[in-house]
From TrEMBL:
The lineage of its organism: Bacteria, Bacillati, Actinomycetota, Actinomycetes, Mycobacteriales. One of its GO terms (molecular function) is hydrolase activity, hydrolyzing O-glycosyl compounds. Residues 1-32 are annotated as: Disordered. Substrate binds at residues 378-379, 626-627. Residues 343-714 form the Glycoside hydrolase family 65 central catalytic domain. The keyword Mitochondrion does not apply. Gene3D superfamilies: 1.50.10.10, Glycoside hydrolase, family 65, N-terminal domain, Maltose phosphorylase, domain 3. The keyword Glycosyltransferase applies. InterPro entries: 6-hairpin_glycosidase_sf, 6hp_glycosidase-like_sf, Gal_mutarotase_sf_dom, GH65_N, Glyco_hydro_65_C, Glyco_hydro_65_M, Glyco_hydro_65_N, Malt_Pase/Glycosyl_Hdrlase. This is Kojibiose phosphorylase. Residues 36-288 form the Glycoside hydrolase family 65 N-terminal domain. It comes from Nocardia fluminea. The active site is at 513 (proton donor).
């Protein structure tokens, strides 16, 4: 399969790849955009995900404004969950602020009622704006052009904007633009069970699903020219308000409200070649907004009032994006295709996080689709956090804030499972309580992740320590960080059981979800060991450096001064198995006895296919892994193992890994590069970088693989760029692929950005921001950076 970038290449089209609608590049700014050429209903749901616009507060899928049969539209507001009418809590498919219809001479302009002559959409990654340009054929041969622009503002995260322009290309016509906010939204629940071969066309794909209702309308009306739709989530009782203003020059305006929607209609008499325009501004407020006190309705109205015009809002949005890109960009000189993929990944990361809200996190599909129901996994701390930590530290801090905000829920999870302290849920939503279902959506398979995938609690501790190490933010570490570390350390001590002289962790599941009910998963045990020691070390530092704060914290969580010594003692006794003869870390007790099933078949991307007879639910007895487990451990704690051990274990486990999670390839790429396997690493990097642009997992329509996007950034910066932040400080050991000329990106280190421009034979660095010089290590040698001075280092 071609990559998205290659699909636009005229040569590849001329060679007849047969695609009619592809993600592709913008001819002028190929690395800053993703383009859809032509209308293909089979690809429409894919583009809905790819073209999501957002700002971390909300995300809106890239559906056509007028929708199409088979559309899967959605607006998702971070933190707005509801459990009514569905067995598992959902991130609510919120009122649709795009909702529009356009008529020319009574004909509805949509992909089924009118002929699509041209269709092109382009997502501008630099400014977060989706542009659309469709030419429809009308009866009698006339044509009408529909152009739109939309964005969810990053300058004002409560604001969304849509511009609609209609041109009668060759005749005079009567144009009607109807646009509003539609509160009649439902979440997909599950597909009824059909005989196995049942296949639905794009137009039936979603309409057979059971659907959950989460919203009731509590008011829809206009005050003068401004409309407000108010809805409430049924179970969680959250109030949402959407305010709407609309302007259109020279038309006749009508407005209307129904019980769950508001809309404005504009009627224009349009001359041949003439264009009419309607601008729509939407303000959003919810009752869960962090620190908000005034009623939602008032706040939503204020938002549209202060936005001014579409053009003012667009300029402010653009300026806010420009500021974000200064530190976030990562580009490759000599490989535009990879640069586009990196920017696409970064774009989706930037629209996933809200640095101003420490009560929400990022779900497995961010705010781009209903996949995984918006639930939050370990993905955030292990895959996503490094990107934010090194480019947007405020967003990283906010993401950690969510875990403190949900600490009461984590205490409940621990109590429900018979221990004290706090245990984080495998799948978390608004409260931190466990939301992970027990069965697959078709009810056929039981899975045990909610009971057994305990390692997430240590992963969160890991993220806290990493955040503090990179930022130097001791106020956080000794505040919310310490509270989480101590409460979770208490959980581990109680969860361990005695086995002779050792402590063991029985009946768990490591990151490799093909194996459940295992004892002493090496990843979990080692991370817990590390976590317990780090918690004790933070306690010891606080008793020297922040006695008062420690005293208050101990009083508030009832911590006995003898407990931290117990954490260290438990860490020392926790079993961490490694084969003494060959040095391979046994993934869990008895893993070496599982049936060795060789991987003998690979797909077009060079990724393994499951051997015939096996499905992801019956690999328990085999040596096959879903995703890195020991290799993930080597990635997270590289300093704990020698290079020889890392190489040996990478080679051993890489041969057994099926990569059935999109988290897997990027981690293999990074560890592969560290142990010198750069050829395999490049293949894994490709797989990760194009997971959504190429839809190489086949389910992009359900939402972006946001962990993979972040993994892609990590491969570029930490893998090829060789970035590491450890006890000696910030290191760069670049080793670029032969086809790349230079790799450019920034990393924040202790509050200040360092720009890196890395080549094969040299590397350049610049430290920004005022303050003392900073020492970094480049290719093993110390280098001192003075603010504002570019330093060039020659490769050894
Ligand atoms: C993976 C998990 C991941 C989850 C959400 C699963 O398929 O195995 O590691 O947390 O997807 O992305």
């Amino acid at each position: 399969m071609h990559s998205a970038y290659m699909q636009t290449n005229p040569a590849s089209r001329a060679s007849g790849d047969g695609e009619t609608a592809n993600a592709a590049t913008h001819p002028r700014e190929p690395t800053w955009s993703v383009v859809e050429h032509g209308w293909n209903p089979q690809r429409a749901n894919y583009f809905e995900t790819i073209f999501t616009v957002g700002n971390g507060r909300l995300g809106t899928r890239g559906s056509l404004e007028e929708r199409h049969t088979g559309a899967l539209p959605g607006t998702f507001i971070a933190g707005v969950y509801d459990a009514y009418d569905s067995p598992v809590i959902d991130l609510v498919n919120a009122p649709d602020w795009l909702d529009s219809e356009i008529f020319v001479d009574g004909l509805r302009l949509d992909t089924e009622s009118a002929q699509v002559i041209e269709h092109r959409r382009s997502l501008d990654l630099r400014s977060g704006v989706l542009h659309r340009d469709t030419v429809f054929g009308l009866p009698g041969g006339a044509r009408a052009r529909l152009r739109t622009e939309r964005f969810a503002s990053t300058a004002d995260r409560d604001l969304c904007c849509l511009r609609i322009e209609v041109t009668c290309l060759d005749h005079a016509g009567a144009v009607t633009v109807r646009t509003g906010i539609d509160g009649n939204r439902r979440n997909l629940e599950r597909l009824p069970t059909y005989r196995e071969q049942t296949a639905f066309g794009h137009e039936r794909k979603w309409d057979k699903w059971a659907k959950s209702t989460h919203l009731v309308s509590v008011g829809a009306r206009f005050d003068g020219a401004v409309g407000v739709l108010e809805s409430r989530t049924i179970d969680s009782g959250l109030d949402l308000a959407f305010a709407l203003t609309c302007s259109g020059e020279g038309g006749r305006r009508h407005q209307r409200s129904r019980h769950d929607g508001i809309e404005v209609q504009w009627h224009f008499d349009v001359g041949p070649g003439e264009t009419v325009r309607v601008d729509k501004l939407v303000g959003l407020a919810t009752s869960r907004d962090h620190l908000a006190v005034r009623p939602e309705r008032e706040r939503a109205l204020d938002t549209v009032a202060r936005a001014g015009s579409f053009d003012t809002a667009a300029a402010a949005n653009r300026a806010a994006w420009d500021r974000q890109w200064v530190d976030a960009d990562c580009s490759v000189v000599g490989d535009d295709r990879v640069t586009q993929a990196l920017r696409f990944a970064i774009y989706h990361l930037l629209i996933a996080a809200n640095p101003d809200d420490p009560t929400v996190s990022i779900g497995a599909k961010a705010l781009s689709g209903e996949g995984y129901r918006g639930h939050v996994f370990w993905d955030t701390e292990v895959m996503l956090l490094p990107f934010f930590l090194f480019t947007q530290p405020r967003a990283a801090r906010a993401l950690l804030g969510y875990r403190h905000h949900t600490l009461p829920g984590a205490r409940e999870v621990a109590a429900d499972n018979g221990t004290g302290g706090a245990r984080f849920a495998w799948e978390s939503a608004d409260t931190g309580r466990e939301e992970c279902p027990r069965y697959t959506p078709d009810g056929k398979e039981r899975f045990y992740t909610r009971e057994e995938e305990l390692h997430i609690t240590a992963d969160i501790a890991y993220a806290i320590i990493r955040y503090a190490a990179v930022t130097g933010d001791d106020d956080y570490l000794f505040g919310q960080g310490a509270e989480i570390l101590f409460e979770t350390a208490r959980f581990w001590v109680q969860r361990c059981t005695e086995d002779g002289d050792s402590l063991v962790l029985r009946t768990v599941m490591g990151p490799d979800e093909f194996h459940s009910h295992v004892d002493n998963n090496a990843f979990t045990n080692k991370l817990v060991h590390w976590h317990l020691r780090q918690a004790a070390a933070v306690y010891e530092r606080m008793s020297r450096e922040r006695r008062e704060r420690l005293h208050d914290l101990m009083a508030s969580i009832g911590l006995d001064p003898s407990e931290p010594a117990g954490w260290r003692a438990a860490a020392d006794r926790l079993r961490a198995p490694t084969d003494p003869d060959c040095g391979v870390i046994e993934q869990f007790d008895g893993y070496f006895d599982r049936t060795v099933v060789p991987i003998v078949d690979w797909d077009a991307h060079g990724m393994p296919r499951l051997p015939v007879r096996y499905s992801p639910f019956d690999c328990e007895a085999t040596s096959l892994l879903k995703q890195p487990d020991v290799v993930m451990l080597l990635h997270m704690l590289p300093d704990e193992y020698s290079m020889a051990t890392r190489r040996l274990n990478y080679e051993f486990y890489e041969q057994r890994t099926m990569h059935k999670s999109s988290l897997s390839p990027s981690i293999h790429a990074i560890v592969g590069l560290q142990v010198g396997d750069s050829r395999t690493a490049q293949r894994y990097f490709e797989r990760s970088a194009f997971v959504d642009l190429d839809d190489n997992q086949g389910n992009t329509e359900e939402g972006i693989h946001i962990a993979s996007a972040a993994g892609t950034w990590q491969v570029a910066t930490h893998g090829f760029g060789g970035v590491r932040a450890d006890a000696d400080g910030l290191r760069f050991t670049p080793a670029l692929p032969g086809s790349w000329q230079r790799l450019r990106f920034s990393v924040h280190w202790r509050g200040r950005p360092v720009r890196a421009d890395l080549g094969h034979r040299d590397a350049r660095f610049e430290l920004l921001g005022a303050g003392p010089p900073v020492r970094i290590i480049v290719w093993g040698e110390p280098v001192t950076l003075e603010p504002g001075v570019v330093v060039e280092v020659a490769a050894p």
